[in-house]
Design goal:
Two copies of one chain form a homodimer. The first copy, chain A, is of the alpha/beta class and 300 residues long. Chain A has a single domain, classed as Ribokinase (UDP-N-acetylmuramoyl-L-alanine:D-glutamate ligase, 3-Layer(aba) Sandwich), CATH 3.40.1190. The termini of chain A are far apart. Chains A and B meet through α7, β13 and α9 of A and α7, β13 and α9 of B.
Amino acid sequence: MPLVVVGSVAFDSVETPSATRERVLGGSAVHFSYSASFFTATHLVGVVGEDWPDEHTKLLNDRRIDTSGLQVVPGGETFHWRGKYAPNMNDRETLEVHLNVFEDFDPVLPEAYRKSKFVFLANGSPVLQMKVLDQVSDATLTVADTMDLWINIQRDELTQLLKRIDGLVLNDAEARLLTDDENLVRAGHQVRKMGPKFVIIKKGEHGAMFFSEHETYVMPAFPTEEVVDPTGAGDSFAGGMMGYLTEQNTFDPETLKTAMAYGVVVASFNVEDFSLDRMRRLERPEIDQRLAAYRQMLSF
Amino acid sequence: MPLVVVGSVAFDSVETPSATRERVLGGSAVHFSYSASFFTATHLVGVVGEDWPDEHTKLLNDRRIDTSGLQVVPGGETFHWRGKYAPNMNDRETLEVHLNVFEDFDPVLPEAYRKSKFVFLANGSPVLQMKVLDQVSDATLTVADTMDLWINIQRDELTQLLKRIDGLVLNDAEARLLTDDENLVRAGHQVRKMGPKFVIIKKGEHGAMFFSEHETYVMPAFPTEEVVDPTGAGDSFAGGMMGYLTEQNTFDPETLKTAMAYGVVVASFNVEDFSLDRMRRLERPEIDQRLAAYRQMLSF
């Protein structure tokens, strides 16, 4: 049974200290599904405008990503994000956001998707995310991402969402904003007590933290000299993690931990080039090889 | 054969979002030696003024820390540092630094210390650190810490020092400053190529990175809800690491990695209270218990 992801599909314009790219393929659901595709077939639900080139859809379809849930709005324009990275490649500034067709996105899952057991709610408002939940009542594992924007303007809706999902993924600044607690260990558990069975706090170049009732752990990022473009790293992490869980068809604590490690490793490839450029050259054996190195790195 | 540490002995005045402490026991050599004392006898070389209370010396002596190398300057005042932590407890601002007797510190090692095999050069100028190296020609492992101040005002001397030591410990901002490279993996290896066999970059709440010719690895900090005062965490980390190496009387790659883990764990206790307050209540079995939890946390 494939994994379902609902989220943004976008053009990204990215400026780093050493290079720039204009309107390259991006968006949370794109980075997520491509990373998940190394482990499982994925159903992508999203929306694009008429400016969306067929070659992008073809690229996804070539990696067992089903795009029958990708709506194309006649006369519409695709979501466009423009951002600039600081020299440390960890902090970034958003220069432009044009939601375009994503603004009125009403996710409707094709009938074939509605029996899915594993569902990821990528970038989108809690209201939109709950609309998706209404359509996947058979799901056994629902995990959502969120953003500072929704914490600021839709906190009540986010609070409702948290009671309905199994897992939440958010970054360190968002966890602090949501809980008003600077200590990430306390913040992680506080978010967990708001509803989800587990919470994952992403820390960019510093890795990720996991919180469940009985477990607290940290996994560092895989150390790499080549950080070309961090855009999509968080979605790539989530894609690797959820892809592995879907492949294993379980999410017991041990499998979840290995899934986290796969997420870290897949994201470490994603940042090695712009857009999906590194991922297009990536094969599963390379992922498993780096996972083995990562496991070795953490054993003493 | 005991471990030797040369560095600052100080009064610290610390302000955190929740509490303040005035003129409590601190200094790099103090945090280092106390942390090392769980593993090995330590010789401390430093300087204090007449305002130094006997009870502080007694506290150190009670934990097999030999203070015969601690000079007391008649009429002098002890090094005093005052700092304030940001709400995130990771960033801090130095409000006052009174070097006092530390300014003219001329380290002279008691004869009994000069045959030591394991030596740590804590906070001090590269010139001072090289004076110590001249006195420990039999040492098999010399490791130094450094600071942004020395990178800025004594870069040539620091460059000389780097050619004479086995290991260097510095924090992330210092590594970036020294190499003018924002990527910590590249920065770590660049520093290594300046002389030392291995380099450790401390990242505060995000752990530490290790670099040698054949190894690159990252260890996250031990996740804790109780961060009361991070002062001395870096020295405590180094003390735990060097203490374990001295206890094992070797520094092969495998032992170095376990030593790093001990450093992380010991530092995680140090931050749980002001000054040495948590460390005074700490016993070795607690350290080994947390090390086991840390090892478990990192295995998947």
